[in-house]
Amino acid sequence: MPKVTRYVCIHGHFYQPPRENPWLEQVETQDSAAPFHDWNERITSECYAPNGASRVLNKQNEIIRILNNYSHISFNFGPTLLSWLEENAPRTYRMVLEGDRASQKRFSGHGSAMAQVYNHIIMPLANTRDRITQIRWGIADFERRFGRKPEGMWLAETAVDSETLELLADHGIRFTILAPGQCARVRPLATASGSGSASRWTETDAESLDTRHPYLVRLKTGKEIAVFFYDGARSRAIAFEGILNSGDNFAARLIGGFSAEPTPQIVHVATDGESYGHHHKHGEMALSYALKLIEKNPNVRLTNYAEFLEKFPPEYEAQIVENTSWSCAHGVGRWCSNCGCNMGSGPGWTQEWRRPLRDALDWLRNAIIPLTEKVAAPLFEDVWAARDAYIAVVLEGCGAAAGEFLSSQASRDLNADERITALKLMEMQRHALLMYTSCGWFFDEISGIETVQIIAYAGRVLQLAAEVFGEEGAALEAQFIGRMHKAKSNLPEHGDGAAIYQRQVKTMQVGLEQVAVHYAISSIFANYPDETTLFCYSIRRLTYEVVTSGRGRLLFGQARVASRITQEPETVIFAVVHFGDQNITAVVKRFEPSQAEEYKDFVQKARSAVIGADFPSLIRLFDRLFGSQTYSIQSLFRDEQRRIMKLILASTIVQVESSLIGIYEDHASLLHFLGQNGLPKPPSLSMAASFAVNAKLRRALESDPIDALQVRAYRGLASGDKIEIDKSTLSFIADKKMKHVMVRLQKDFRDVARLEDALMTAKTLNELPFELNIWQAQNIWYDTLKLSYKQRLPDGWEEKFMELGTQMKIRVDELVVEEDEEAERAVEASVAT
C-alpha cells in the first residue's frame, strides 16, 4: 500500500467575546439573542453543542452516525468562552474536552486543541507586559482544561508582529496559524545560510504563496517558530461562498487543493468555528459528512497541525508582514482607526470613534500602572509576576485559590484589609486586560453591545481605582470621560463615548449596598437560606423578620454581604414593604455598631406600624433611620427583575387564559359550524380559539406524564377549525419534554416504566404537525445506548429501546457507534451527578 503524502486539516476558531456584567460576573439577558437568554446560549445551541454531536444522515434524513467533530478537526476555543461553557453548558464543555482527548489517539498523540491568547486582544497593539500575560494566561487556562501543554497558539484575528512571535517561542509554543497575505517572502531552508541566487528570498502575496507546507520563521533572538499559512481561497469559500451547503462539495473542494507533486503536502483551511452551524445552518453536518468522505479516501488522510509538523518539519523559511491580521486589509487598523473596514451598517457612518476609544483605554491603562506599583510595593514581591500568577484565581474562583495565591505571591503575611487591597489590585488589572477585547472595535458603532462591554470593563477599572488609590484614583474618571467625548457615535441619540459611559455603564455599576438592595427586594419572592450566594457575592443573614397586615408585608433584617472575589465585606440593615404586585419600597444602610439601639427602636415601631396598618408612619420611620434614598423593583438586577415580574404577572395571566379558554369552550360548536360552512369567523372568537387551543396543547405537553389524549384532541381541533399552531413555543416545549424524559431514563435506564414513558412521549410528539428539534434527547439516547453495552437488561428492553430510537428519527439498524471507554466513563459520571 503506497505511503500517504496528502493530508487535510480543517481548523475552527471558536470564540465569543466575554459578555459578563463586570460587577456581577454573569451574563445578563440580551434581547437581541431572543428567544435565547443571551448570545452565548444561542450560539452554543446553534454551533458549539451540535459540533460535539453532529449528525450524519441517510437519504431518508435518519441518523446513522453521531460524530464529535472536535475529535477530527483542529480547533481553538477562547478561554473566556470555555469558562462560560464549563459553568452553563457542561455537556457541551465535556464534548470539547473529549474531542481533544480522542484526537490524540487519532493523530499520533497530538491533540487537536490549540491555546489562544487569553481574552482575544490584538497583540501588536498591546504593550509587552500585556502580551506576556495574555500568553501565560492562555497557556495556564489550556493546561488546566486539556491536561497537557499546548503545542500551538491562536492569535486573536491572527494579528501578528515579530515581537509576538518572539514571545510565543519564549513560552514554548511550536506553531501558529496565519493568513496567506501575512507572508512577505520565502526561501528554501537548505540554502538559507548560503550565498548566491539560490538563497535569495522570493516575494509572495495571498495568491502566490504555496500554503501546502509549514514554514519556519527565524527570530532575532535566535529562536524559531513554525507558521502554517492557511489556504485563503478555500477558507473564504467556507465562510462566504456557500460551500457548506453540500458536504460532497466541501470534501471535493478540499481534496482538489493538492498539487501533482509527490512530496508531502497539507491542504488546510481556517475559519470562524461559528461557520459550522451558526452562520450556516446545519454547517456542522456538512463538516461531518465531508470528514467521513475524506476518511474513506485511501489517498488522503486527516491530520492536525502538530502531527503534520512532527512528521514533516519545515523545509522553507518565511518572513511575515508586520502588523497584519486576517480580517483587516489595512493591517491592524480596524482596532485603532477609521481604516475603512466595516460591516456596512449605515449610510454615511464612519468609525472615527475607534482611535479616541483606543487612546482613552491606553491612557487609563498607563495611568494606573505607577499607582498600582506604588500601592503594591508593600504587598507583593513583584506585582507583575503576581498578575501572571493570578490566572489561578480566575480559573478556580474565590476562596482557597485566592488564599493560595496570596500565600505564594505576597511579600509577607497580609492582614484582612491588605488582602482585600491586594485582590482589588489584581481585579483592576484583570479588567484592564478585558477592556482590550478585540470585538469592541470590530463592528461599526460605538454604542453596539460589544463596544459597550469593553467600556464597562474600563468602568470597573475606574471604580476599583477610586477604592484603592483614593483621590488620585477617583480623579481618573473625569479625565477618562473627557477623552471619551472625542469618540463620536454615528447615532445622534447616543452622542459620544462619554454619554454612553454615563448612561449605560455608570448605571451598571454595583457596590455592596446595591447587592444588599437586590437581596432585600428579592427576599419578598424567594426563600433564601441563612447563607446564600447571589452572583459573585455571598450573603449571611444575621437577623430576619416578616410582619404582615392585609396585603401589606414588611420584611426587615441585618445581613453581612461580601464579594466572593475581593473578599470585601459590609454589614447592612434593610427593610422592604410590599403592598402587592409591583408596589415595593426598600431601604438599605450600612450598619454601624453605634446604631444598635436606634435600629432596635426602629424594629419595634415598624412592627407596630404594620400591625396597625399605619403605612404612612412606616415610611416616615424609613426616612428617619435610612434617609431619603429608597429603592423599588426597578432596582433589581435585570434577570431577577424579569423573573419577579413574571411571578407577579402569573396570577393575572392565569385569569386571562381561563377567560379565553372559557369563551372558546362556550362557543366551540359555533366556530365548528362557521368553519364547516365556509362562513367568516369573528376575529374576537378566532383569537380566543387560537389562544385556547395553543394553551391546552401547551399544558398537555407540559403535564407529567405527557397527556397524549389531550394532545391528540386539541391537535384535531386545530386542524378542523384551521387554527394556527404556535410552532415556535410548542416545539420548544416538546424539545424540553423529550429531553426531560430521556434524562430521567438515563439515570436508571433499566427501569422499564421509564423506558415506556419515554417511548409514549416520543410517539405522541411525532403526531404534532411540525418538525421537532429533539437534538439533546437524541444525544442522550445515543449515550444511553453506549451505557447499556455489556449490561444485564430486562426482557424486551432492547426491542423497546430501539423502537424509541426509531421514533426519534435514528436509523438503529444502520447506526455506527464510535466506542470510547473514557468518554463512556465521563457519561457515567455525569449521569451519577
Short description:
Helices cover 49% and strands 13% of the residues.
Write the layout of secondary structure elements.
Elements: E1 6-14, H1 39-52, E2 54-57, E3 63-67, E4 74-77, H2 79-88, H3 90-106, E5 113-116, H4 128-146, E6 153-154, H5 162-170, E7 175-178, E8 183-188, E9 202-203, E10 215-218, E11 224-229, H6 232-240, H7 247-255, E12 265-272, H8 283-296, E13 301-302, H9 305-311, E14 316-320, H10 354-376, H11 383-389, H12 391-396, H13 400-409, H14 416-434, H15 439-442, H16 449-469, H17 471-484, H18 497-505, H19 512-522, E15 531-534, E16 537-549, E17 552-563, E18 569-578, E19 584-590, H20 596-611, H21 615-626, H22 638-676, H23 683-702, H24 708-720, H25 727-747, H26 752-766, H27 775-788, H28 797-807, H29 821-832
Parallel strand pairs: 1-4, 1-12, 1-13, 4-5, 5-6, 7-11, 10-14
Antiparallel strand pairs: 2-3, 8-9, 8-14, 10-11, 15-16, 16-17, 17-18, 18-19
Describe, in plain words, how this protein is organized in 3D.
The protein starts with 5 loop residues before the first strand and ends with a helix. About 2% of the residues have low confidence. β17 and β18 form a beta hairpin. The chain has 833 residues and is an alpha/beta fold. It contains 29 helices and 19 strands. The strands form four sheets. Strands 1, 4, 5, 6, 12 and 13 form a six-stranded parallel beta sheet that branches.
Average pLDDT, rounded to a whole number, is 93
Gyration radius, in Å: 31 Å
Summarize the amount of helix as a percent range: 40-55%
Helix run count: 29
Cα end-to-end separation: 48 Å
